[in-house]
Amino acid sequence: MPGNTIKKILARREAALVILLVILLIPITIRSPQFISARNISTILNDMAILAIVAIGEFFVILSNGIDLSVGSVIAFTGMACGLINEANQAIGAVPLLFVGMGIGLMMGLLNGVLVAYGKIPPIITTLGTVNIYRGLTFLLSGNQWVTAHELAPSYIAFPRVTFLGVSLLLWIAFLVIVIFYYFSRFTRTGREIYAIGGNPTAAKFVGVNESRIRVVVFVISGTLSGLAGALWTARYASAVNEMATGFEMQAVAACVLGGVNFAGGAGAITGVVLGTLFLGVVTNALPVVYLSVFWQTFVQGLIILVALTLNTLSDRRKHAKLLAQRRAS
Amino acid sequence: MREKRELMAKSRLIDEGSLKERLITIFTMWEVLLSVIFVLLIIFFSTRTKYFLNWFNLMNATFQFSEKAIMALPMIFIIMCGDIDISIASIIALCAYAVGNAAAGGASIPTLIIIALAVGTLAGLFNGFMVTFLQMPAIAVTLATQSIYRGIAIGMLGDQARTTFPKNFGFFGQEFIKGTTIPFEFVLYLVLMVIFGFILHKTTYGRRLYAIGNNAEVARFSGINVKRIRIINFTITGFISGLAAILLTSRVLSVRSNIATGWDMEIITLVVLGGVSITGGKGTVWGVFLGSLLVGYLKFGMGLMKVSGTLMTIVIGSLLIVAVLLPRLLDLYKANRKLRRQHEVR
To answer: Which value does ipTM take for this structure?
Structure first.
């Protein structure tokens, strides 16, 4: 029996990712030993914290068989809004700004969700539209200007770097988000209903799941988390630029796909998404180590998504074949 | 049963009887609605600025949207089947890079054309193959290839640009048909539109696209090779992307890795605004033609009125959402009317 249990653990996406991560780390470390130094690891984790927050929002949307392409623009708008507020009123602390960001993000996500749930517009079209609307609004809001480091309050800029128990606040926030939404996705009614809607909308409706409500909820989560990420982004990068986070949705989706989230909805887990984010972070940070210019980052990311998609499909097929064989045998 | 048939006959009688009913039927047709909006748009801009209603300006404006309008044609096929391709702007970038690079190496114009078309076709074929092989939503696959294709262009070009081209290369994207004031690009678009319209509306291939879009499963069971048709659609789109890349590089005579960024959204907007249902199975080339002109001249007019690019992005984004929302509301309205009419007959 223990052999079987080990097999089961190894068959999980999370295990595969950890193994892949280790395999990836060995040559990188041999090439440049300082890659796994505490300092570099902390850099990678901090770099990935914002992505993890956004990817978790994206996770719920993909889980419900949708997609949210607007996260990058929501980050830009909320980040710019927080930057402008902070510039105008230096006394406002970082924590209220985080809530401002989440509030604005929530409204933007709500608009996406309402258009999808009640306007019956497919998520891809809705967010393809709002990605441009929100980005345009960012430019309008800022009047095409930037908010630079010296216009922001030092306390706001310092906020993500403040350490508590040796870990930065940015990481703590990401950790908190991960824990909350892990609990939400596994142990709450709404969380399970998202799985149900993504897996089989018709069946879910028959057992009494309110589909429209779930569709709004997933976009609200995604918007709120993107808003939080926007507020953190401005602080971490010490500026608010109109073009910030362009194409960030691609990375969020990549983290989800890498984490084994099924694009057709209904399957996936937060743990996978977190590991997927980590994997992406290691690969991105390792590019200079293998003497690949950062210009190749987009290509590598695309390639990783494609490979992950292929692996997902192949493993799904094997599972189906196995199930079929079992059914035939019995 | 007979009662029901009589009822239907009666309701149809009313439908065709009154002029008001007929007018409502006509004006709730998407293409007619688009034409009306288009005419209103022209009237609006003509009264606002004297530079709008001017043959030379109107023709010159087509330079700004011909390539996107051309790209919208194969996209009709893809969306008609319920698929989507958000990698086309990246395919254009990849082809443009290939063209720019070959041109810098001294390649002749025919070689450049062949290179662009070949690269585009291969990229499209790869998309089609992956979509059907992985049995994944096309959005997932083209999201990945979007990064891959543009990633190659970014990786190879870095922050460099390619700006050397053969002497007469500017013809495709800059010149007019000899002796007229009609741009070559626009004429090419009209020719392609007729070809795509013929394929969609007059051939078996076109009818099959509608069948797949309405119900892929049923289409498969009735003997249509759905996989092959979807691969062909993506390949055609890649080929046309190569063509668009030639026109675009010829027009701007400079290739950077960010070339054609954001075109995916605009091209999908043209198709959806043209009345092609995003879930597939519904739409006409004629409608997309109107949609393309509408967006093209809307942007031209806004430009004349000094509307900023930012505001235009917001308008186009909103247009995309409204374009999908409106037909649904129209359908709802039609269904409601039908119901009410049946009640009246009863």
So the answer is: 0.81
